[in-house]
Amino acid sequence: MKSKVEKFSQLLSAKAQAGQPANLYLGFRSLFLQIVNEFMFSSIPDHLKSLATPEFDDPLNIATDNAVNWTHWLIRNFPNASALVNKVPRKLLKNITGAWEGLTQVREILEQLVAHEKSPNTPKNNDAMARRFLDAHLDPRSSSTIPHPDEVVVAETEVTMWGGITDMSNILPYATFEVAQNPTLQETLLEELKVSWPDCHGPIPSYEVLSKLPYLNAICNESMRLTHGVVYGPPRQVGSKGAQVDGYFVPPKTKSIVIALSYYVHMDPTLFPEPEKFRPERWFQKDHSNSIMIFSKGRRACPAVQFKVTPYNTTAKDFEWNQYFSIQYNGRHLHAMLEERKL
């Protein structure tokens, strides 16, 4: 993972040295795609690799960005719609509506990656997730001696990919924008980092080191709170014995549906005074970790922190969002002018 972050930083440095704005929204997404894809596949063909150029315009990056729209809302609320759409020939579907084009492109690219994984010319990594699926029937403990169909492997890699990029691709652009808007906050974070990372061109500190930096973690927690992750999880139908929910009894056999919404927790003023404001310092005053519903555990750090970041043609309005399976920003991608810091 460190090597990917270092590659990302090199691409940002190229933009900084050229005096050109960097598309940090696509940049962060490209970084996470490269990390998750190398977890899933033994190798990736050069033309499909992420972090390939400073423009971060690799095919899967663009396709995943275009794929998140109202179609996810439709599939979530009308599950049978997905099965129906899958039966429509892709060329015909493209002529009917362009809304499915991004998702179709994602699946076509993943099909190429699975085919590449199966090729006898591809060096094998037995720890790669797709490799394990393809070889599962060879395990003597397996209940089946029949290989998984390709469409099953593609579906599993797609779910894993979305899980690896969706929330982080929202959190880090937002965190970067908020920090960039506040020069005092930038300098405070920089001073904290100097202690553990005195040379920004040297090795990136370990997770164990970064996880102990209070201001960095406060910024991460506040950014996670205000991006919400999956705003509402899968609905849960009440069982045959009923259920107790926050002191209320929900009777059985009523077809009642219970859904927990992270937004209501994250924006609860009794937990977070002035919840709409980005205030990392609130995490020093009280431990709110049990009130963050986006991740059960873990810390996230921003690889762009070694640069002085100035938003370019980006405003707070660009971070207004719609909710599909996660949030999707409605405005322009976060672009920024970068200046390398001398840590």
TrEMBL record:
<keyword id="KW-0479">Metal-binding</keyword>
<dbReference type="InterPro" id="IPR001128">
    <property type="entry name" value="Cyt_P450"/>
</dbReference>
<comment type="similarity">
    <text>Belongs to the cytochrome P450 family.</text>
</comment>
<dbReference type="InterPro" id="IPR036396">
    <property type="entry name" value="Cyt_P450_sf"/>
</dbReference>
<feature type="binding site" description="axial binding residue">
    <location>
        <position position="302"/>
    </location>
    <ligand>
        <name>heme</name>
    </ligand>
</feature>
<dbReference type="GO" id="GO:0005506">
    <property type="term" value="F:iron ion binding"/>
</dbReference>
<protein>
    <submittedName>
        <fullName>Cytochrome p450 domain-containing protein</fullName>
    </submittedName>
</protein>
<dbReference type="GO" id="GO:0020037">
    <property type="term" value="F:heme binding"/>
</dbReference>
<keyword id="KW-0408">Iron</keyword>
<dbReference type="InterPro" id="IPR002403">
    <property type="entry name" value="Cyt_P450_E_grp-IV"/>
</dbReference>
<dbReference type="GO" id="GO:0004497">
    <property type="term" value="F:monooxygenase activity"/>
</dbReference>
<dbReference type="GO" id="GO:0043386">
    <property type="term" value="P:mycotoxin biosynthetic process"/>
</dbReference>
<dbReference type="InterPro" id="IPR050121">
    <property type="entry name" value="Cytochrome_P450_monoxygenase"/>
</dbReference>
<dbReference type="Pfam" id="PF00067">
    <property type="entry name" value="p450"/>
</dbReference>
<keyword id="KW-0349">Heme</keyword>
<keyword id="KW-0560">Oxidoreductase</keyword>
<dbReference type="GO" id="GO:0016705">
    <property type="term" value="F:oxidoreductase activity, acting on paired donors, with incorporation or reduction of molecular oxygen"/>
</dbReference>
